[in-house]
Design brief:
The protein has about 400 residues and is α+β, with helices and mostly antiparallel strands. Helices cover about 20% and strands about 30% of the residues. About 5% of the residues have low confidence.
Amino acid sequence: MVSLQWFNLLLVLSLTQLVSGCTFNLDTSSPSNPPHLIDANNKIILPVMVGSSRVITLSTDEKVAVGCLGTGNYIQTTGMQLAPATCLSNSKLLLVDGRELSYSQLGCLKQNKEILLENGTCANGLGTNIRIGWQAGPEFIPLYDTCHDKVAAANYFSTSFIHGKSAAADDSANERPSFSQGGYYPGLDVNTAYSQTQQTQTIADIVGSTSLANQYVVAGSQVFLSRGHMAPDGDFIDAASQDATYYFLNVAPQWQNFNGANWNVLENAVRNLATSRDVKLTIYTGTFDILTLADINGVQQKIYLEFDANGNGLIPVPKYYWKLIHDPSTQTATAVLGINNPHIGQVLPADVICPDVCNQVPWVNWALTDIYKGYTFCCTAAELFKAINFAPDLGDLPLFV
């Protein structure tokens, strides 16, 4: 009886024999700092799953660029940062200098590093659109965009993609890096502002009581404000792309009991849909409104993680997180919203800011009304835009079901 391990190996070997050209098994032949392979359309070639292996396949004579991107980075065997190459029939790449090299011989000096480019405004002029991606010679290869308000130190939404063909072939062994300010948030120590000690102190100052703040941020529990990704690392495939999501520009304060519960279930559900349906989805993930908590007099106060010298709130804690899932191939879209407040007590009709259509979306099937896990409701794309005027205006699309 053939073991599962041998079956997967035979499957990969069969693919190598059936497909003329190059087959790179990333689980067995990746160098320590793998390059990006860039196709003729200036797109990074992503792996797919073959059995239990992550595999990149090129056809014979297919031309690619081998990229070790970022300042001071280069292919160690060639000294080049961007090397044109042609796939040979023996799973090697023919470089312009005449050398034939296997994928394992194309390691970079260090991990590919993204750059940040400002590209116009967003959120009706309130925010600056910042593109995160790769500089490959004269070409910029976008990875995702984020909309950042420099004045309020707030993030409105990020725009990214889930590649259904490759979503299951992500580098799941990659370790999380630290978050970076990326040259933004001048004069602020954002990492410290997010620390539980500092967020408790800041909330105490807002509500006028340390003991009350300790009821809002509960030591030793999941009830604290985490760095909530908008474009999540899990939607990206290679380690360098995953690490490129770790900017404070791409997060907002999110209660961890919501982040690790209903919001996490939503992110996994969308990835699973993209994979099972083999579609490329456009994902918009954002925030809306500002969370309020009762002070010692019972008066609702807006919550921020920082203040400027004039007492203006910075890094607002959003009341809502929202995700708009758009399938361009079928021109359908569904918005899913979650209330970012485990202390709300009860959800009133006015808190559901657009007509809830979750009962029409079969894949939204978790604990929707659990406030601690994140009260969840759904909207059409058009109704989301009516409620949040900086959300994408996709028109009156049918639901993505």
